[in-house]
């Protein structure tokens, strides 16, 4: 069964089994603040122009250093 693409504004915490196409429009440098875990912010934009902020935490930051790049286009899915 082929999944139909959804837009970011259609997603909720109850949305299951979806796929979205997004472009990374911002990717911050990793930050470490006292008393908080290391984190890196992303801003994603879909084809409708809707944006969503995401955060990569701790040991995942180096894993996504090369895998997610600014201006890169990606499909994100949840089964």
What distinguishing features does this structure have?
globular, 79 residues, mainly beta, OB fold (Dihydrolipoamide Acetyltransferase, E2P), single chain, 4-stranded antiparallel sheet
- What kind of sheet is the major sheet? 4 strands, antiparallel
Estimated structural class: mainly beta
Rounded to the nearest angstrom, the radius of gyration is 14 Å
H/E series: EEEHE
Helix content: under 10%
Number of separate structural domains: 1
Q: Going across the biggest sheet, name each strand in turn.
A: 3-2-1-4
In the CATH hierarchy, the third-tier topology is known as: OB fold (Dihydrolipoamide Acetyltransferase, E2P)
CATH architecture: Beta Barrel
Stretches where pLDDT falls below 50 for ≥5 residues? none
**Overall 3D shape:** globular
CATH class, named Mainly Beta
Report the sheet-strand fraction.
35-45%
- Helical region count? 1
* Chain-averaged pLDDT: 93
Q: Mind telling me the CATH superfamily name?
A: Nucleic acid-binding proteins
Distance between the termini: 12 Å
User: Could you tell me the number of beta strands?
Assistant: 4
């Amino acid at each position: 069964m082929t999944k139909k693409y959804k837009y970011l504004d259609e997603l909720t915490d109850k949305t299951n089994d979806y796929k979205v196409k997004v472009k990374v429009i911002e990717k911050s440098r990793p930050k470490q603040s006292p008393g908080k875990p290391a984190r890196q912010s992303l801003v994603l934009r879909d084809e409708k122009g809707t944006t969503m902020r995401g955060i990569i935490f701790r040991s995942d930051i180096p894993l996504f250093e090369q895998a997610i790049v600014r201006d890169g286009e990606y499909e994100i899915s949840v089964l």
